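User: Okay, second chain of the day. Same drill as before: sequence in, structure tokens out.
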Amino acid sequence: MKLTLAFLQLVRWPNLLFIIITQLLFYYCIISPSLPADYFQSPYALHAWVLYLLIVASVCIAAGGYIINDYFDINIDQVNKPEKRVVEKSIKRRTAILLHLFFTLAGIAISFYISLQTNFIIVLANIGCAALLWFYSTTFKKKLLSGNIIISALTAWTIIVLYFAVNPLYHIRHFQSYEMQTAMKTIFKFAVLYAGFAFIISLIREVVKDMEDMVGDARYGCKTMPIVWGVQATKVFAAVWLVVLIGAIAIVQFYVLHSGWWWSALYSLLLLVGPLLWLLNQLYKAQNSKDFHAISKSIKLIMLVGILSMLILRFYL
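Assistant: Same drill. Structure tokens below.
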């Protein structure tokens, strides 16, 4: 039991659950309602079992990434979060690297099979994701901003990948009816909106986590933003992106209201814009690692609230 709990902690099971929820909601609340009825009767439709395999592949690659990150972060974690350390404390390093290889290769193998059913963009991109997670853990995590951008882009990819999986226009040239093209434009629009939200809020959270982990990172030669620029400049960077995100959500609501989607607008303004404004104030007042940890947890909750907004959109599509 203790080993099982350690394994779940190693693979960050709440984050994996978040990926599952995000991809399921985006398919069943955005993609499925947008598609014409004849799509589901066509031989080119994305079957449920292919969708679930795609989710499994995403989870496997992410789990492999979390494992290899902890594998290379043993020394840093001894300083930043000794109580949460798993590798060498509960799971041996050799076991960790084998688990990383298993999950990563399993994710790539499943992606290859999915690509045979859809298109090869998915397996190529997922191989790229696995490679980026490796180099993030070994190199980019210690660099200024590059590691933050990589993780944010990979977070956005969990949504974008579904657009490529469901779009037959990429590989079935004759399946280009007006209804299908309109549906794909709608799906692409929402994919960009949610992926953009995921990218920006993940970037903010990664920068906040760098401020939280500054002591251990500095001790082992990392060149993260708060170490290179200082905490105050990093807070300004995060605040600017918070303002950009708040502004983008507010602007989108004008179009949402124009479409008569009142409940969606109310949800976004009360449960996203409001908390983000509060978060901006908390960031201004933050002084120590404990404060930044609390902000990081709040951002994660706001991310979940943003993803759950798909449930409301389901009734308008």
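The longest helix spans residues 178-212.

User: Thanks, on to the next one.
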